[in-house]
């Protein structure tokens, strides 16, 4: 799940749908994490370890397998997906890193067969002063979807 839904009134329904099924759950983004935690009646706990200085630390939400920052982590994940698809032989340490992008790469590239993106199209109030917009996030998801499909994954994207 990445960016919040368009309509705040949809938060509960989107999170309920996201949580259904026996699958791994990953939330990317601070606002999305807060929404999920609120709907699950828990809180986000942030780790203050920086295994990779270029990727923000991960967080923890009870009931969620991985909680990461949004855009920076997704950008790094896209780069990792491009490296994974390249002719370049990846060093085993590639998947041993403990930053959010590397943990997510291991889940998606090595372990997943199916990937379901829940993509909110809401404007993130936390980004109003930053050069981050929904178009950028949608393009990241689109590029990741293409790369995951090249890896043989079945990918679905649900916009809300």
Provide tags for this entry.
two-stranded parallel sheet, two-stranded antiparallel sheet, alpha/beta, 160 residues, 39% helix
Question: How is the secondary structure organized here?
Answer:
Layout: H1 11-19, E1 26-28, H2 30-39, E2 45-46, E3 59-60, E4 66-68, H3 71-85, H4 100-111, E5 114-119, H5 134-150, E6 154-159
Parallel strand pairs: 1-4, 5-6
Antiparallel strand pairs: 2-3
**Beta content:** 5-15%
What is the average of the pLDDT values? 88
Pattern of helices and strands: HEHEEEHHEHE
* Low-confidence blocks of residues: none
- Give a short account of the largest sheet: 2 strands, parallel
Radius of gyration: 15 Å
Strand order across the largest sheet: 1-4
The strand count comes to: 6
Overall form: globular
**Head-to-tail CA distance between termini:** 10 Å
Helix content: 25-40%
> What class, by secondary structure content?
alpha/beta
Explain how this protein is built.
The protein is of the alpha/beta class. 39% of the residues lie in helices and 14% in strands. The protein has five helices and six strands. The chain has helices at residues 11-19, 30-39, 71-85, 100-111, 134-150; strands at 26-28, 45-46, 59-60, 66-68, 114-119, 154-159. Helix 5 links the parallel strand 5 (114-119) and strand 6 (154-159).
């Amino acid at each position: 799940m990445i960016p919040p839904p368009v309509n705040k009134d949809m938060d509960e329904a989107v999170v309920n749908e996201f949580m259904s099924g026996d699958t791994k759950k990953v939330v990317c983004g601070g606002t999305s994490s807060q929404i999920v935690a609120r709907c699950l009646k828990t809180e986000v706990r942030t780790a203050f370890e920086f295994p990779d200085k270029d990727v923000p630390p991960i967080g923890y939400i009870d009931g969620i397998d991985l909680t990461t920052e949004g855009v920076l982590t997704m950008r790094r994940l896209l780069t990792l997906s491009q490296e994974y698809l390249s002719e370049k032989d990846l060093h085993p340490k590639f998947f041993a890193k403990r930053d959010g992008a590397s943990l997510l790469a291991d889940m998606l590239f090595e372990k997943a067969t199916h990937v379901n993106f829940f993509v909110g199209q809401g404007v993130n109030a936390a980004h109003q002063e930053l050069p981050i917009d929904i178009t950028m996030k949608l393009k990241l998801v689109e590029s990741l979807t293409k790369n995951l499909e090249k890896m043989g994954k079945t990918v679905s994207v649900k916009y809300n």
